[in-house]
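Project standup — Tuesday

K.O.: blocked on the structure for the chain from last sprint. Re-posting the sequence here as requested.
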Amino acid sequence: MNVLECSSIDFSYPLQNGSSLSILKDFSLKLAPGEILSLLGPSGCGKTTALNLLAGFLKAEMGRVKYKGNELESPFSSGQMIFQDSNQLLPWLTAEENILFPISRRRFPGMRVRVDEKQRQKLDNILSLVGLMDFRAYHPVKLSGGMKQRCALGRALMADAEILFMDEPFGALDTPSRRELQNLLLDLWKEKGLSVVFVTHDISEAINLSDRIMLFSRPGSRVREIQVSLNRPRDRRESSFKEMEFDIYSSLADTEE
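H.V.: unblocked you, prediction finished:
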């Protein structure tokens, strides 16, 4: 059974003049357990809207989204969103308190976070996995952009996420940090058996991470689907990687003409 699927999705945004702007039309998708699927395309092609529909943050006008065979009506705890904006963390909480947020009752400044021994052990394991053990007591203002995204990944793990919805999460990082975070995501994917829907406009990033890539064009049309059968770990210098990169670039360029 697919962990997530949608069929015949239509979605548009209302405009002030009473008309509407079509974003997605007859959009369908299936996500297998343990699969990394990238939604790749230029800005404004509907990738983020599709992600928000899959995560339950938006409601389709036509069609439906299903999680493990059940129709999805709202966001669900097994699906966790990780945004590009590093300000997704709560500034008054430390790194470890942000990671604990899904299971704690602390919602406002001044409230204490209380966890039992089992939760504390889980926290320590997650801090180690995401490389923040030495930064657990730091507040977000003292963390780099990459560290903030590590913290967001840790928070998703604390919530026992089965699916990560990732909206260009590494797009604002420098190249070395971006590649470090890509490798971290792959490590977590292997260890936890996560399913991932990853939005990006970076072709190399999509090839490096994905089992499958769905290409989008403006406005909101699915152009092509590509199975990425390259062996892991993938080397951007290899001819097979470069050939796939050029092939995808050509497909996207054709849609812009």
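K.O.: great, moving the ticket to review. The CA atoms of residues 104 and 114 lie 7 Å apart. Residues 84-161 form one domain.
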